[in-house]
Write a structure and sequence with these properties.
binds zinc ion, 4 helices, 165 residues, five-stranded antiparallel beta sheet, alpha+beta
Length: 165
């Protein structure tokens, strides 16, 4: 298994990291997941996890995207990581919606009408062009990301978030 990562403006690649710890005595496992920005960050996570856990390491298995660490008491900690692509480009004009501060959430019904519910981004201009009207506050959900007070809001997004129907 190998990875090839091509960097394009508006597309970010991060790493989904899964850490699974299995305690030998009970065979109980705990799993945690998080996103890392770089391979260096993953190594840092591995290093921190192993440091926090007392006990001598008896064996380590390395594979691409995988690390398995065995302790003398039989405990095993496995680390798995794979790339996650976050595409912030507007479906229609290709602008990086993250760079122009147009990250928002509209109601599902509206998104179905505009983008067939696709997991994707549209800038305000292109969403309004598809709908054939100007967005108003009622189109946005109560999600935290829609707060007008957040610092990163484009002028037109700020305007729509407070616009009356
Ligand atoms: Zn657009």
């Amino acid at each position: 298994m190998g990875f090839e990562i091509v960097n394009e403006p508006g597309v970010n690649t991060r790493w989904a990291v899964t850490v699974t710890e299995t305690v030998a005595a009970t065979a109980d496992g705990t799993t945690t997941k998080h996103l890392a920005n770089s391979l260096l960050e993953i190594e840092q996570t591995i290093s921190d996890t192993l440091r926090d856990r007392a006990g001598r390491i008896s064996r380590t298995v390395h594979r691409l995207g995988h690390r398995e660490v065995y302790f003398e008491d039989g405990t095993r900690i496995e680390f798995d990581w794979e790339p996650v692509v976050l595409d912030w480009r507007c479906l229609d004009c290709g602008v990086d919606t993250d760079a122009i501060d147009e990250y928002y959430m509209v109601h599902d019904a509206l998104w179905r009408e505009a983008a067939a519910g696709e997991r994707a981004q549209l800038c305000i201009d292109c969403l309004e062009a598809r709908l054939g009207r100007t967005l108003t506050a009622a189109d946005f959900t109560d999600a935290e990301v829609n707060s007008v007070d957040l610092p990163r809001r484009s002028q037109r997004l700020r305007d729509r978030l407070t616009r009356r129907s």
